[in-house]
Amino acid sequence: MQPAMAFGDDDDLDQRFRFTAPDNEAPAAVGVSGVIGRSADAAVLLAGLSRYTVGLQIDLAIRRRLDPDPTDPMHSTLGAGLLVGVELADGRTVVAGHPPWPPADGPVLVYRGGGGGGREWSSTLWLTPAPPPGDLVVVVACPSLGVDESRVVVAAEALRAAADRTEILWPREPDQAHPGIEPRPPDVPPGGWFEQALAATTD
User: Fold this and answer.
1) How far, CA to CA in Å, does 94 sit from each of 79, 99, 121?
2) 20 domain residue, yes or no
3) Which stretches does the entry tag as region Disordered (predicted)?
4) DSSP secondary-structure letter at 9?
5) Can you give the pLDDT at residue 13?
């Protein structure tokens, strides 16, 4: 998980969008989905792609045929042990989360969230900058589930068509500074244990 940051001017926004999609845009779906790779008992799916002006959101899912063992470590690891990479049309490659703080002059692929349990898991990733013209290749592998390195090619035409449909809703307004809010103290019955214990913490 990336640490919280404060953003203001254009340079800060450029940095912000390296880790999250713009909040003033309506993305366009790229018409591609389906199974990327599978084993006898598991499958990795491309659940969807969403195109923004400055990047691409990639939604992946893991499905399992059987309930996992209670000691299964998959759901305790970032990305559920799933390796994800992208190859751009210009030959550049990037692997999600590597390095943790990528250089400013290259493509970035970061985890934006995920969750699940039992037989299913989902992961959302953010790729920026927007991919150059041409096909895009998404590569996955999940050794813990026996899913070998597999890939899917997203056609250049589908990416270009989605780029044409992406809509900027309004110019992005600067973030506002919000002062910290002091939490309201709890209602405490007078004369009891809680009143004494809480009073001791303020002495």
Assistant:
1) 16, 9, 22
2) yes
3) 173-193
4) S
5) 56
